[in-house]
Amino acid sequence: MERYERLLQGGAVTQETYQKYKDQYTTALLNTKQQQRVLGNGAVIAPISGYVYDKKVENGEYVAIGAVIASVINLQDLKLVVNVPEQAVYQLKLGDKASVTAQAFPGVSFSGSVHYISPKGDDLHNYPVEIYLTNNSKNQLKAGTLANANFTFKQGVSGLFIPRRALVGGADSASVYVVQNNVARLRKIRLGYDNGDQYQVLDGLKQGEPVVVNGQLNLTNGAKVTVNQKSGAQGKADTSVAVNP
């Protein structure tokens, strides 16, 4: 532009010609700066530290602005989501400590804390609870690993408990065989707190009613049985009964 400025001052070009080239020069400068910004954005910086586990594009591909090119996972800080029964969730509060274990590392415990408690439960009265934990550098968990969370409550969960092995069907549609006058009656129950070896029974079973804990596979509703062994169980309920159909 210096050349055209000298030509304009010497009267060699008109003001109109000078302005045309000046506008072209200004536009070229703006385009250059824009391309420099585009080149500067060519280096993609991850928002978090971690590992790239899902790459969406290959080298040389054109991508649109805002397109996802890869997914990054942070294994240092993990989130565990567990379903906590209604009877136990009211004893939890944000910041409570949790001991997390996984079958991948027997005997190893990971320390976590409650970060979120859902205000709404599901149809089975279980509430999603999120636990944040710091990964163990020696025994590092991977994302998607099945894990269990154990909470320590100031007061124990009270009520009627039965052994896990007494269940017929899954926890979401649980039933037990109740012995009445040496006859096995299949009865639906509603479960609450799960402490690992035992389930709390919220509905469908009364204290003192004997339930079958062995031999359920050979039983049918209404079958006659003979009680072989009888012992007490947690919650002062007679819930440990072995039978022969």
Automatic annotation (TrEMBL):
Annotated ranges, domain YknX-like C-terminal permuted SH3-like: 160-227
Gene Ontology molecular function terms on file: efflux transmembrane transporter activity
Domain of life: Bacteria
CusB-like beta-barrel domain residues: 80-152
Pfam families named among the record's database cross-references: Beta-barrel_RND_2, YknX_C
GO cellular component assignments: efflux pump complex
Record-stated family: Belongs to the membrane fusion protein (MFP) (TC 8.A.1) family.
Alphabetized PANTHER family for the sequence: HLYD FAMILY OF SECRETION PROTEINS (PTHR30469:SF15), MULTIDRUG RESISTANCE PROTEIN MDTA (PTHR30469)
Record's protein name: Uncharacterized protein
Lineage, opening ranks: Bacteria, Pseudomonadati, Bacteroidota, Cytophagia, Cytophagales
